[in-house]
Amino acid sequence: MTAIRSIVLGCGSYLPERVVTNAELAAQIDTSDDWIVQRTGIRQRHIAAEGEFTSHLGLKAAQAALKNAGVDAQ
To answer: Which of 8, 17, 13 is closest to 62 using CA atoms?
Structure first.
């Protein structure tokens, strides 16, 4: 029996452009940067734009992976 094998040729990622820092979050709700970092380790987060869905993020990550691998989507 023949084993089917795969090879990872490239990898890619994408983050939304909008960054929200803990300072911005703390200005909106009763908290602080220190409180958030101590409990979560998070210092900032990326927020998808209006109308930007996980499928858009995945597509951009896939395009980056293809470019990294040096192959065409075809």
So the answer is: 13
Give the global pTM.
0.73
Residue 66 contacts residue 46 (beta carbons within 8 Å) = no
**Is 10 a residue whose pLDDT tops 80?**
yes
The predicted structure's pLDDT at residue 4: 85
Tell the residue number behind the tokens 């075809």, with chain if given: 74
Three-state secondary-structure class, residue 16: coil
Residue carrying structure tokens 């009763």: 30
Q: Could you report how far apart the first and last alpha carbons of the chain are, in Å?
A: 29
pLDDT at 1: 76
18, β-bridge pairs: 47
